[in-house]
Amino acid sequence: MTLYRQALDIDPDYADAMVQLADACERRYQLEEDPIWLEHGANYARRAVAVAPDLPAAQLSAGRFELANASHRKAIQHLERAIALDPLELRAYLYLAEAHEAFGEPQAAEDTMERAIRTGPDDWLTYYQIGRFYYAERSDLDRAKGYFEKVIELLPDRSVGYSALGSCLFYLGDRNGAREQLERAVGIGSDYEAHSNLATLEFYDGNLAEAAQLYERALEMDDSDFMVWVGLAEARRFGGGSAERVREAYEMAADRASRHLEVYPDDLRVLIYLASTQIQLDRQSEARSIVEGLLPDEITAPDSMFALAEIYEVLGERDNALLWIERALVAGFPLAVIEDYAAFDGLRSDPRYLRLAESSTERPADKKTGDSERGED
Predict the structure, then answer these.
(1) Nearest-angstrom CA–CA distance, 200 and 194
(2) Which helix (H) or strand (E) covers residue 366, if one does?
(3) Is 80 exposed, middle or buried (0-12, 13-18, 19+ CB in 10 A)?
(4) Is the distance from CB of 225 to CB of 199 less than 8 angstroms?
(5) Topology of 1-119 in CATH?
(6) What local confidence, expressed as pLDDT, does residue 368 receive?
(7) Are 197 and 167 in contact (CB under 8 A)?
(8) Domain ranges within the chain, ordered by starting residue
(9) Residue 362: predicted pLDDT
(10) Are the C-beta atoms of residues 358 and 292 closer than 8 Å to each other?
């Protein structure tokens, strides 16, 4: 960063240096989690566009930072311009699709992904990124599955495709297929996401000691994901771990979630999981404050509904817990996951839940579900 700043001292209109500084600020934020670096990065990106509006990298950088700041219309404008200047830049399509989705334009987002395929029909990363879009942004697991299968076809000796496909199959209800893919991913090498995803499968299969070990191995590789800390806490909690070690993991989860919310304070999913974590840390008042500030109509992700159901169950509000269980099932959350979740042992004996579960099995299967509760591929 010092060298790029010195370059700007020599040439104040050196747009490439501004783009590189913006990227460096983003990486520094990822390392230090100080939101000031996102602010600095956005400023460098805007300066780059101002001095070199026809530089694709400048438009891409500006679009990425506008998206991070929830300025979706501005992000769309910059990213469309980036694509016009460089039609083969895959990242511009991915960010553009995300911006359209966040702006409430799902068809435009889908059209953008179709355009993205043409940038690299034989490139595994193209299919992986598109699969991730359908998995995380659109919750269309059947479609994501096809793209992850293509990743494996193009990259059979790497774990990334097997890990992603295994996560998809788990939430599609194919536990055996998920295990086959995830064990293969872990066997290939030290893949953080593969270990985390296999840990989730072990957790729901009731193999709690194995789940805890896999979560611990994942955190040795990357300890920044609060959901993996939640997974470890619950594997220890339901597996008979000491109260001290359970609390330690929940504290780490709360810390990581709070850091995320410093930058993205309106992230509903993280707010809900932070509330869930606070309850486990005996901070009911903080949890209630978060939940009472939520607008129910804005909660559309099935996994967030699932988490809310647990919060209300722990708070002793069974009616609200069942309400959110029903909403989660209607939105496509897998009944098998609810059936295997230890925190719902009491709820599952309620006759009202039994009627909901029966109705869910009679309802036509919904292709869509949310992100993994304990990390994602």
Answers:
(1) 10
(2) none
(3) middle
(4) no
(5) 1.25.40
(6) 41
(7) yes
(8) 1-119, 221-377
(9) 59
(10) no
Q: Are 78 and 49 in contact (CB under 8 A)?
A: yes
- Report how far residue 145's alpha carbon sits from residue 288's, in angstroms, rounded to the nearest whole number: 37
Residue 363: what pLDDT? 53
CA angle 111, 46, 27 (to 5 degrees): 80
Distance of alpha carbon 186 from alpha carbon 194, whole angstroms? 6
CATH topology of domain 221-377: 1.25.40
Question: Is the distance from CB of 276 to CB of 313 less than 8 angstroms?
Answer: no
Give me the torsion for CA of 179, 184, 187, 190, rounded to 10°: -90
Q: Round to whole Å and give the CA distance between 290 and 275.
A: 6
Cα–Cα nearest to 276, from 268, 284, 264, 265: 284
- Inter-residue contact 181 to 166 (CB < 8 Å): yes
Q: Could you tell me which of 191, 141, 147 has the C-alpha nearest to residue 168?
A: 141
Structural contact between residues 246 and 233, judged by C-beta atoms closer than 8 angstroms = yes
The pTM of the full predicted model, rounded to 2 decimals, is 0.73
